[in-house]
Input
Amino acid sequence: MAVVAYLNGQFLDPDAARIPIDERGHQFGDGVYEVVRVYSGRPFLLEWHIERLERSLAAIGIENPHTREEWVELINEAVRRSGEPESLVYWQVTRGIAPRAHLFPVAKPSVSLTVRPFAGEAAVEPWVLLLPDERWANPWVKTLNLLPNVLAKEAAHRAGAVEALLVRSGLITEGSSSNAWFVRGGEIWTHPANRYILGGITRRFVLDLARDLGIPVHEEPLSWHELETVDEVFMTSTAVEVQPIVRVAVSAGLVGSLDTWPADRPVSLLPEVGEIRTVWQARGAQPVTDRLREAFADRVARFRHQQPVVG
Ligand SMILES: Cc1ncc(COP(=O)(O)O)c(C=O)c1O
Output
């Protein structure tokens, strides 16, 4: 069976798995999630994902229903049942199932999980669209509340971009589902993993790779006005790994909403993108991105052969 589903203690046929109407994830988005990449049947950097899940759960006061060992066992069992060597495992923990009321219920947390085949997808001429980052003030928590991310990704997609590059008070934070990186003069800039971005697991791994390669890193935000000083742009996530970007563009009508947070005038949540201006374009080779991509591929190859990838 390629696609596997799990709900509160039971592996189910994915078409038969049903979330109860009073599930708080459904009613309020009251929960958190994780996604881990599986290479050659082995979940990559699983311990780091479990640690982040612990931080997300603690942040919103949901009791962690499993020990680290139990999470590892559950995820490995799901991967084993899927029989898929290359996949993505998503899992959600919510505050549980209880009649709708805002106050925390007396309920056990709910756990759901899927395993789906995933071998990566290569984007053609990947470019990104700058959009205002109007998420709440705690994007560091990997909550199920992804509406602003969903809307931003959709607006970018409608314009033909692969990703939305979010800007809060003039500073580039991250993508709608990825972290953002910039190279200037052979050195890297990326937003610090503070409250305003999700501390990506791939980001953490790529920071280690950069250190190993001796590439200086500045964990400092970059203003979108500084893009003209940038030589390379790339994005990272569990799904895209290290994704080179060839162009950054902005919608002429949205320029004013990038520098103030939140914009004084509400921005349409699904803005008509209209006229698009290029604000940065790759000038041929992207050597730092290439080195990181190679190092990443090399670590994954080692991982596939059961070798340790992090110390
Ligand atoms: C908002 C956001 N930032 C960054 C990332 C990248 O995180 P990771 O490398 O853990 O996949 C994601 C991944 O889903 C995300 O949703």
Q: What stands out?
A: The pocket of pyridoxal-5'-phosphate is lined by residues 149, 174, 177-179, 198, 200-203, 236-238 (CB under 6 Å).
